[in-house]
Each structure stands twice: as structure tokens, then as C-alpha cells.
Write a structure and sequence with these properties.
Structural class: mainly alpha
Helix content: 55-70%
Radius of gyration: 21 Å
Order of helices and strands: HHHHEHHHHEHHH
Number of domains: 1
Largest sheet: 2 strands, antiparallel
Strand order of the largest sheet: 1-2
Strand content: under 5%
Number of strands: 2
Number of helices: 11
């Protein structure tokens, strides 16, 4: 029997604790999904930046607030995802609560950023033709749908922490997700990031506030992907290196050509 299917005997006395862990995981999942939905609706223009209780500040203070929000989100999202931090955090909260806590913190950080992000209504571009507007919305929605489907291509419920708390509740060991190449992961190493970039940048009306948000979070994605690649290489070794050689990231075709060129160069140097 595999570890994923093995169960342990559960005493009635442990039920309150197991229910508490399950409730915590469900709440963290709900907050994480709510933050994702709020992000999507804001990028689509259904919701708008208001500045929260800060209101609309002058350009200098507004930029300082936005940079601070971006740094806070980046630190939370990156530091808590690093293997060294996760290893230490697991010893504190246990394997069942590590991922839900990460999702809870991510949801809070993202909602905080969306709430306090400074509104700058200056219009950079705005489409007027109805067909063009509908086409752009279709592409943007496709990007968000791509992101959402990508979470299921790996394991949506493990990614958002629900599987871990359910395993704990029913007495199964918490087993890390295996390395798999499914669906869009066969040609895109980071489809969640690809979908987010499409969703943030493809809009019929781009305000200055939206533009600053998109630039800031795009820069974070580039940095985040860099560190995630290092972590994956450290975890999976040659298997992930081979995956990188075969599958591109963000722009798969261009990435694949670059990798092949580097591989050919390494072969030439070895032959010399």
C-alpha cells in the first residue's frame, strides 16, 4: 500500500484537533481563492483601486505606498516558498498546516495590496470599438482560465493546501506532490505565471495605476520564477534540468531555442 493510501488509527480524543486543522485549511483555501478572484476582477476593471483608508495620495507618496505593498507581497510570497523556510516552518506547525498557512498569508498580502494600491486614473490607452473590447476581454479571460486550469494540471487542492488538511483529518500521511508533466506543463514550465501576465496586461483600458501594478507584479514574477527554478533544480536535479531542456517558460518557443543553443555550445566546448 502506498503512503498516500495508508491510514492510521484515530482516537476520538483527537477529533477536535483534526476538525480544527480541517477548518483552518478550508478557511485558508477560501481566503486564497477570494484573493485570486479579487485580483482577476480588479485586472478586468470590474473592481477598481481605491487606496483604501489612505485614499488617493500625491504622486511621490503614492509610489512609495505601491512599492511598499509590492515588496511586502514579494517577501511573503517568496520567503515562505523557499525550501529552507518551509523545512523550519513545518517543524513549528506540522506538515498539514504548512501549505494552508502559506495560502492564508498569500491571500492576506494580495488582498492588502489590492485594497491599498493607489488609484491613478490617468488613462494610458482605452479601446472604443466594441468588437475590439470584446476580443481583448476574451484574451484576458483566456489567460485567467489558463492559470486556473494549470493549478489542476499539477494538483489544485494540494497547491491550495486542502489535500494536506484532509489527509490529516482522515489519518493519512501528508505526501508531497510528485513531479508531473501534464496538459500545458508539457510545453510551459510556469503556466500559472503565463496566465497571470496575460491577465494583467491584456485590458481594453489601461490606467496608470493598473500599469504600475502590472509592471511591479511582472517584475516580481520574473524574480520569483528565477528562484523557483533554482529550488526545483535543487529538489529534482537532472530530471528537472532535462525538463528545462525540453520545455520553455513564459514564451516556450524562444526559450527552447535558447536552451538548445546553450546545449550545442556546451557540446562544442567539450569536444574541443
Amino acid at each position: 500500500m502506498s503512503p498516500r493510501n495508508r491510514t492510521v488509527s484515530l482516537s476520538p480524543a483527537s477529533l477536535p484537533k483534526r476538525l480544527g486543522v480541517l477548518a483552518y485549511g478550508v478557511a485558508a483555501y477560501a481566503l486564497g481563492v477570494a484573493a485570486l478572484v479579487a485580483w482577476i476582477l480588479t485586472m478586468l476593471g470590474v473592481l477598481g483601486f481605491s487606496g483604501g483608508p489612505l485614499g488617493a495620495l500625491a504622486t511621490g507618496p503614492a509610489l512609495a505606498v505601491d512599492v511598499g505593498l509590492l515588496v511586502a507581497f514579494g517577501l511573503q510570497h517568496s520567503v515562505m516558498a523557499r525550501p529552507t523556510f518551509k523545512a523550519r516552518w513545518v517543524r513549528v506547525v506540522g506538515p498539514a498546516l504548512e501549505r494552508p498557512t502559506y495560502m492564508l498569508a498569500t491571500g492576506v498580502a494580495l488582498l492588502w495590496a489590492l485594497w491599498l494600491w493607489q488609484p491613478t486614473p490617468t488613462v494610458i490607452w482605452s479601446l472604443k470599438q466594441p468588437v475590439a473590447i470584446a476580443s481583448v476581454y476574451a484574451v484576458a479571460l483566456s489567460g485567467w482560465a489558463y492559470l486556473f486550469l494549470a493549478s489542476f494540471a499539477i494538483n489544485h487542492f494540494e497547491l491550495f493546501g486542502l489535500q494536506q488538511v484532509w489527509s490529516y483529518f482522515v489519518g493519512r500521511p501528508v505526501v508531497p506532490a510528485p513531479f508531473r508533466e501534464r496538459w500545458m506543463y508539457r510545453f510551459d514550465r510556469h503556466p500559472i505565471m503565463t496566465g497571470a501576465l496575460i491577465g494583467m496586461w491584456v485590458t481594453p483600458t489601461m490606467t496608470l495605476g493598473h500599469l504600475v501594478f502590472a509592471i511591479g507584479f511582472s517584475l516580481y514574477i520574473v524574480v520569483g520564477v528565477f528562484f523557483e527554478e533554482r529550488s526545483m533544480l535543487a529538489q529534482w536535479g537532472d530530471r528537472y534540468e532535462d525538463y528545462c531542456d525540453r520545455v520553455g517558460t513564459i514564451v516556450p518557443r524562444l526559450r527552447r531555442r535558447a536552451v538548445r543553443a546553450r546545449r550545442a555550445k556546451r557540446v562544442d566546448l567539450q569536444e574541443v
